[in-house]
Amino acid sequence: MTSVEQVQAAWAAQRRVRLGQTALIAVALVVAVLISADLGEVDLVRLWERSDRLGNYFGRMVPRLAWETLAEDLARWYRRGDRWLRELGVTILIAIYATLFGMVLAVLGAFVAARPLAPAAWACWAMRRTFEFARTVPELVFAVLFVFSFGIGPLAGVLAIALHSMGALGKLFSEVAENADPEPIRGVRATGASWPQVMRYGALPQVAPAFLSYGLLRFEINVRAASVLGFVGAGGIGQELYTAIKSFAYTDISAIALMLIVSVTVIDVVSERLRHRLIGAASLRAAA
């Protein structure tokens, strides 16, 4: 057998092994999906038989608009537009305050949770567990607890989202801080500065652009989260949406949903451009 034939035979044998492994993985995946569907009581037949109901539901949400009476139809569709705009503004304010509070708490804890920068091993461990708890518990659970404690209103939404944001941003911020250049930190420490001063003047200037970028990304997420928290009484446009759903006001649902989609899209576009500018400015400073 020539060397070429040996290579071809080895390649064919390796291909058969890979095909066998792929087949086993596919079979295991199918079995896992079937078991999950059974445990989750997912009835595909029922899903298919009742799929038309979903179409009917969305069909009822579409308002009747005619070109000849477009202004009147739009006015009827958004007859409560002033109230919805106020509640949408409350939702955005909830997201803004929650993001700011969450960022402040995350920045304060990030340097403690960063292993190379932590003042003590036990403090690093405790802060990491705190971040894990804050980001593991869903915002809805926090919101229910705060609504029970402080009553219905935006305060519960701000606290719930801020706590969850602290956990999510704390993990990201601590990972960024761990990758900071150690030379400026050593230089500040060599002057006899305290640990907070070393973090303030040696580490923070390096990681601030990344912190702001992640904060803007979290703000986009928090706007959507604030919309959902209204379902449990945490204030904002979510309460209006929940009321419309309960009362089967289908056109009101579509009107509120459209407002949310437009506002979130605008915020996403603006935040994305700001993040790119921050990242670009940081890259230019690093290159210089």
Low-pLDDT ranges? none
The succession of helices and strands, N to C, reads HHHHHHHHHHHH
Shape: extended
What is the CATH topology assignment of the largest domain?
Answer: MetI-like fold
Radius of gyration: 27 Å
What number of domains?
2
CATH superfamily descriptor of the largest domain = MetI-like
Instruction: Outline the biggest β-sheet.
Output: none
| Count of separate DSSP helical elements | 12
In total, the number of strands is: 0
C-alpha termini separation:
60 Å
Helix content: over 70%
Mean pLDDT: 84
Topology:
Blueprint: H1 3-39, H2 44-49, H3 51-61, H4 70-77, H5 81-113, H6 121-136, H7 139-150, H8 154-178, H9 182-190, H10 195-229, H11 237-246, H12 250-287
Explain this structure to me?
The protein contains twelve helices and no strands. It folds into two domains: 51 residues, no CATH class; 213 residues, Orthogonal Bundle (MetI-like fold), CATH 1.10.3720. The relative contact order is 0.10. It has 288 residues and is mostly helical.
Short description:
The protein is mostly helical. The chain has helices at 3-39, 44-49, 51-61, 70-77, 81-113, 121-136, 139-150, 154-178, 182-190, 195-229, 237-246, 250-287. The model has no long low-confidence stretch (mean pLDDT 84).
Observed structural traits:
MetI-like fold; 288 residues; mainly alpha
